[in-house]
Write a structure and sequence with these properties.
This protein is an all-alpha fold. It contains 15 helices and 2 strands. The longest helix has 28 residues. It starts with a helix and ends with a helix.
Length: 291
């Protein structure tokens, strides 16, 4: 079977190229910063999860294109703001200068703001029914705001240089990382009229497990990953005193937690049988990736 992640990466790239303003359109510096941040080698895991979930129920990819692009746009805006000096203060993202280093801090803030607005414009104009577009807007806005990703970022900042327990750490990353991953999966499912309540519940369990697994692997890579592959200095989170699964459990404990979450994700999909082959492949990528 062809690599499903690669297939969906290529597809969402095409949609992103269409919906992002041209670099030559005024204001050019702002649009250059937006495109710089979108087209910087992202893995496109969230769009792939959305496509794979929708296709599991027979939803045509054309219906899912706008939702896939929107969720990647929101993710990219969040990375621009996370990297700012007032947040994580990072100079490197995916092996390149962060947006505020390549341009300037004010332009980076505006680029993030503009991308956030663009994501919802893309959903409004999606090739889908009004009911589905409204459902997508609700799912994505809830996952992006104070009860989701932004709230998680606030909790993560508050946990720097502070020892947190497993409940607090899970809560941080269920919001900061997991909320958008969960939204990706549920947006794919919401496009399927054939998705039953029991199947929706299993997908929710899958989403929660894989969202945390993604963060655990990130924390492991911060210590064991090669800087040239992870695109940032090794040990950068540790040096900042960030609360991570490795700092809480130790490396062996973090790897055990990753294995447990991977198995939970796989178990959540067993009733889907062969329909979940693409999601299973994405689980494998998330838990074994080196960047």
């Amino acid at each position: 079977m062809n690599n499903p992640l690669q297939i969906w990466q290529q597809r969402v790239e095409g949609t992103l190229q269409q919906v992002l303003p041209s670099e030559s359109a005024a204001p050019t510096r702002l649009h250059q910063a937006m495109r710089y941040s979108i087209f910087n080698g992202g893995k496109r895991v969230r769009p792939a999860l959305l496509y794979a979930t929708g296709r599991m129920f027979g939803v045509e990819a054309e219906i899912l294109d706008s939702a896939a692009a929107a969720i990647e746009i929101i993710h990219s805006y969040s990375l621009i703001h996370d990297d700012l000096p007032s947040m994580d203060d990072d100079d490197i993202r995916r092996g390149r200068a962060t947006c505020h280093r390549e341009f300037d801090e004010a332009t980076a803030i505006l680029a993030g703001d503009a991308l956030q607005s663009l994501a919802f414009e893309v959903l409004v104009n999606a090739n889908a029914s009004l009911e589905l577009r409204l459902d997508w807007i609700k799912l994505l806005s809830n996952a992006s705001g104070s009860s989701g990703m932004v709230g998680g970022q606030q909790l993560d900042l508050a946990a720097e240089q502070v020892k947190v327990d497993s409940i607090e750490l899970n809560n941080i990353h269920n919001l900061k990382t997991g909320a958008l991953i969960k939204a990706s999966i549920l947006m794919g499912a919401s496009a399927a009229e054939s998705c039953k309540a029991e199947e929706h519940s299993k997908l929710t369990s899958f989403a929660e497990a894989i969202g945390l697994a993604f963060q655990v692997q990130d924390d492991i890579l911060d210590i064991e990953g090669e800087s040239s592959k992870i695109g940032k200095p090794q040990g950068s989170d540790l040096k900042k005193g960030k609360s991570t699964f490795v700092s809480l459990y130790g490396m062996d404990g973090a790897k055990a937690e990753l294995h447990k979450l991977q198995q939970q994700a796989l178990d959540s999909l067993t009733s889907f049988d062969q329909r979940s082959v693409e999601l299973n492949a994405i689980i494998d990528f998330i838990t074994k990736r080196d960047h």
